[in-house]
Amino acid sequence: MEDVNVPFVEVHYVTIQKVGDIPIVKGDFQELPPQVQKWVAQMVQLCTPRGVYICDGSDEEAEMVTQKLVERGTLTKLTKYENNYICWTDPRDVARVESKTFIVTDDKYASVPHSREGTNCVLGLWMSPEEMKGQLDDRLPGCMSGRMMYIIPFSMGPIGSPLSKIGVQVTDSNYVLLSMRVMTRVSSEIWKHLKHGEEFVKCLHSMGCPRPVERLVIKHWPCNPEKTLIVHFPDIRKVISYGSGYGGNSLLGKKCFALRIAGRIAYDEGWLAEHMLIMSITNPKGEEKFVAAAFPSACGKTNLAMLTPAIPGYTVRVVGDDIAWMRFDKQTGELRAINPEAGFFGVAPGTNMKTNPNAILTCLKNSIFTNVGETADGGFYWEGLEDETPAGTEITSWTGEKYILGEDKTKKSSHPNARFCCPARQCPIIHDKWEDPAGVPISAIIFGGRRPEGVPLVIESFDWKHGVFLASQLKSETTAAA
């Protein structure tokens, strides 16, 4: 029989991992620690995504996610800078929603103080586990249908530090993934620190817009503001966020984990999780002291932490601008603090080269800007940058309206709570010990807030006990951050 020339065909067989019927599109599920596998499998069964993406924190991952967000229209590249992007959200999803933020515990008064019958507590909202179960059962089943579920391993604090804590966030938002990579330490190295069954904080986030989407999506920003709910379970170290993509509600390593859940962990373990900046001040003699300072959101923590001293011979270095985890050193008795975050999530309006030049210099690359304006030449703009932006510049506001700077003083480019999200390592005055696993020694604590009248600008306490008393009496104006 005559030979027949048959083309050579090479056959490859690819095995696709699945969680139940849901495919793993990236990553090896078997490499996850058993306790993480179990929880992720439960979340997949509950949320029914179209696929599971296990994040590793690589540069390639960032490039892929960024490209998808640009293609979708969620992000726009700011061409004036290196790797900077702008995002405009649904106008209904622009800040933390305290009225929809709950603590769930069996004992109500483990979460909120006793108050007179008929009065509303302003220090937090509590809901019973039974009532919250009904709320979540109405929201979570199938909440990620048609969307990718991203598994984000992250460390609050330097990876491996005895002061750090580990979390795993599952989310259907790749904007959240990209922002978490800035604000926390996302890495596949995290799994090694959970291999012996160690505890981790469970963080579930969904935009609340399963596909096919039955609601109007504004500005390529899926959200569900009518059903937004942010829930904390401190007893079991868990956070559930539904319906919002705004950073304070969706980047669960921030306020949700680093303050609310960590506050309970700290109480149980004998340390402190506080809404405080950490900075160092060095006098002309070279004597350095580290200071923590507690102000509410949008009251000046970032500006103080990155202060440029007006007094000759003094220098300031920043360790963190928002959250401090502090505990006493058992050997020395020193109060030592770490910044659990890896980035700055600062209020943009009012920030400029006069009020905070270091913040401006920090966010000139590798940053995400939310609800700020954009100049015609691809730069960022917000109220406070008037002196640094030529009159006549065309601005596109966060609502999409175009106007000429200087022609109409009533036009606003940015939401009052517009934000910049940038890596802390880029700050020109970042302290060389900002990631020291042992933390830095705290010598003083400052408490403050926004008060236009009625109190002196600065008050010094007589001693530490008097300082606690003074701090407990402080009240601040409401800001756009909440």
From TrEMBL:
Q: Which cofactor does it need?
A: Mn(2+)
Q: Which domain of life is it from?
A: Eukaryota
Q: What class of enzyme is it?
A: lyase
Q: Which PROSITE patterns match?
A: PEPCK_GTP
Its EC number(s): 4.1.1.32
For whether the record's keyword set contains DNA repair, the answer is no
Write down the SUPFAM superfamilies for this protein, in alphabetical order.
PEP carboxykinase N-terminal domain (SSF68923), PEP carboxykinase-like (SSF53795)
Instruction: Quote the cellular component terms of the Gene Ontology held in the record.
Output: cytosol
MF terms from GO for this chain are:
GTP binding; manganese ion binding; phosphoenolpyruvate carboxykinase (GTP) activity
Domain Phosphoenolpyruvate carboxykinase GTP-utilising N-terminal, by residue range, is: 38-266
Keywords associated with the record: Decarboxylase, GTP-binding, Lyase, Manganese, Metal-binding, Nucleotide-binding
What biological processes does GO assign it? cellular response to glucose stimulus; gluconeogenesis; glycerol biosynthetic process from pyruvate; oxaloacetate metabolic process; propionate catabolic process; response to lipid; response to starvation
A Pfam family (short name) is: PEPCK_N
Electron transport among keywords: no
- Which stretches make up the Phosphoenolpyruvate carboxykinase C-terminal P-loop domain? 271-482
* PANTHER family, per database record: PHOSPHOENOLPYRUVATE CARBOXYKINASE, PHOSPHOENOLPYRUVATE CARBOXYKINASE [GTP]-RELATED
Q: Which family does it belong to?
A: Belongs to the phosphoenolpyruvate carboxykinase [GTP] family.
HAMAP family given for it? PEPCK_GTP
NCBIfam families, alphabetized: PRK04210.1 (NF003253)
Quaternary structure annotation from Swiss-Prot or TrEMBL: Monomer.
UniProt name for this protein:
phosphoenolpyruvate carboxykinase (GTP)
